Amino acid sequence: PRAPAGMGDVPEPCPQAPLAVLSKVELRVSCKHLLDRDTLNKSDPCVLLLMQSQGQWMEVDRSEVIKSNLNPVFAKIFTVDYYFEEVQKLRFEVYDSHGQAGVGTHDDDFLGGMECTVGQIVAQKRVTKPLFLKYGKFAGKSTITIISEEISGNNGYVELAFRAKKLDDKDLFSKSDPFLEIYRIDDDRSEQLVYRTEVVKNNLSPIWEPFKVSLNSLCSCEEKRKLRCVVWDYDSRGKHDFIGEFFTTFEEMQKAMGENKVQWDCMNPKYKIKKRNYKNSGVVVLLDLKIHRVYSFLDYIMGGCQIHFTVAIDFTASNGDPRNSCSLHYINPYQPNEYLKALVAVGEICQDYDSDKKFSALGFGARIPPKYEVSHDFAINFNPDNDECEGIQGVVESYQSCLPKIQLYGPTNVAPIISKVARVAANEERTKEASQYFILLILTDGVVTDMADTREAIVRASYLPMSIIIVGVGNADFTDMQILDGDDGVLRSPKGEPVLRDIVQFVPFREFKNASPTALAKCVLAEVPKQVVEYYSYKA
Where is the secretion signal located (predicted)? Predict the structure, then answer.
């Protein structure tokens, strides 16, 4: 695949497809010296993350509440999409929470806020800033620290299930209330909190709920990276008692796959020195570990998934007589007509991903020789046994030579071509070991006659390895196309059956006539990678 545009050519914003997500970023939050709003004990802080959208601050997510702590390290990991070409403003707000009532947004519960951009955090990796109250007043010496990490490509996640046995009892009148924390030890010896389990009350042999963490978060995708695991006895006043700790690695944890279990002695270093026959303060057992790999579009392409393009061109009479200069199919020796412009612009982008650089090229809605009967799926090179053309240039040549031989007619039936490609996709799916994925590129002036059949055909196709890109040519009303592109809600067949996955992307070419090829490329291919990944995930 072609590399993204360099800094020189700034891509125009695309009217409907999202910008290319450069990456996802994980943010971890901690605070120091928070204001104490509670008379009897310390504040119970919680952090809200807000993002600016059209000038309005919207809450995106919030952390857990940490009881009675003015220097909290939050276990919650905030995940945000990072768009390289956008300024994304973030605001962190810290509140003192009150039990069941949740997070109050009253001024007296507000412990301070801080604003920055995703770009700043990503560039600096670690940002510490003072917290401000209303009207730009400092919140005492309070600070907030945000640590960011980009999630790398081979990012799967892992599901872990821990329990402990015979932990030390720290409570006088009842048993300990244990919880477990896992820290990742970074290269600079600093520790990052990866996960904090729930508290199991009054139990020296707790079984904690299974949980998922990303491999990136757990060990930066390095199996030998050291992890520190600590067991605490929970205290509602925030003074948790240390029970014990142990060190491990993700490599060692993986022995717990299948029927095996891995266990560690939970050690208290002080007791080890003081007590002569000290063995441990209990044991911690990893009952189960499951790895879930998450594959990206590039993983499929590099792993041998082949992409096959079919181009379908609308030859209905509504396009206008090709001999007339107003026609979208006007044969002009000096410059390409609207169809050719769209075909070349979109085709050249797709060509990069096509495995054999051969495109099947079909036409619909014309009367074709020799008998001049209407066809809705003819090969534009008039070779019924092989409708493939060599590259986009081959499609252009076949298009130019077929125009004078056919008679533009109608109606605009799109379902036959969708069904034709779907049959090939279904066949390939049954017979081939190497995965093949089919993309149908439909160039049309817009108004579909067989809307019900087309919806039915798209619902069927959504179960197959295929995507449909519809390029609207000319200035017609493209309402029908907008309906087929399921972005505004789920597309359904006439009987009400929904698509399995959204496989249609509609691009109005007129909005890109003066845009750079990069901007068009973004819109055309915006959804394809996601659609490919969704299909193979569904298959798996």
Answer: none
CATH number for the segment(s) 305-538: 3.40.50.410
Query: Predicted confidence band at 4 (pLDDT cuts at 50, 70, 90)?
Result: very low
Task: Look at residue 136 and give its three-state secondary structure.
Answer: helix
Beta strand 466-472 with 436-444: parallel, antiparallel or unpaired? parallel
- 46 near 97, Cβ under 8 Å? yes
Quote the CA–CA distance of 13 and 165 in Å, as a whole number. Answer: 58
pLDDT in tens, 359-404: 999 999 999 999 999 999 999 999 989 999 999 999 999 999 999 9
**Structure-token pair, residue 96:** 């003192």
Q: Break the chain into its structural domains and give their ranges.
A: 24-151, 157-292, 305-538
Query: 500: how many CB neighbours lie within 10 A of its CB?
Result: 15
* Residue 413 and residue 365 in contact, taking contact as beta carbons nearer than 8 Å: yes
What HEC string does 420-482 produce? HHHHHHHHHHHHCCCCEEEEEEEEECCCCCCHHHHHHHHHHHCCCCEEEEEEECCCCCCHHHH
- Superfamily per CATH, domain 157-292: C2 domain (2.60.40.150)
Compute CA 177 distance to the chain's CA centroid, rounded to the nearest angstrom: 38
- The number of CA neighbours under 13 Å toward the Cβ of 61 is 12
282 pLDDT tier (thresholds 50, 70, 90): very high
- At 177, is the secondary structure helix, strand, or coil? coil
Q: Where are the beta strands (DSSP E) in 133-240?
A: 138-150, 157-165, 178-185, 191-196, 211-214, 226-233
Which CATH architecture group holds 24-151? Sandwich (2.60)
Q: Which residues contact 45 (CB under 8 A, 6 or more apart)?
A: 31, 34, 65, 66, 69, 70, 72, 94, 95, 96, 97, 111
pTM higher than 0.85: no
Q: Taking the mean position of all CA atoms in its chain, how far away is CA 233?
A: 38
User: 157-292: same fold as 24-151?
Assistant: yes
* Residue 149 · residue 282 · CB < 8 Å: no
SS3 of 509, please? helix
Q: If we measure between CA atoms, which residue out of 123, 113, 174 comes closest to residue 143?
A: 113
Non-local (6+) Cβ contacts of 130 within 8 A are: 112, 114, 138, 139, 141, 142, 143
Q: How many residues does the chain have?
A: 540
Burial 279-304 (b: 16+ CB within 10 A, else e): ebbbbbbbbbbeeeeebebeebbeee
Q: How far apart are CA 438 and CA 426, in angstroms?
A: 10
Question: Does residue 18 have a cis peptide bond before it, meaning omega lies within 30 degrees of 0?
Answer: no
pLDDT tens digits for range 185-243: 999 999 999 999 999 999 999 999 999 998 888 998 888 999 999 999 999 888 999 99
d(CA 77, CA 192): 11
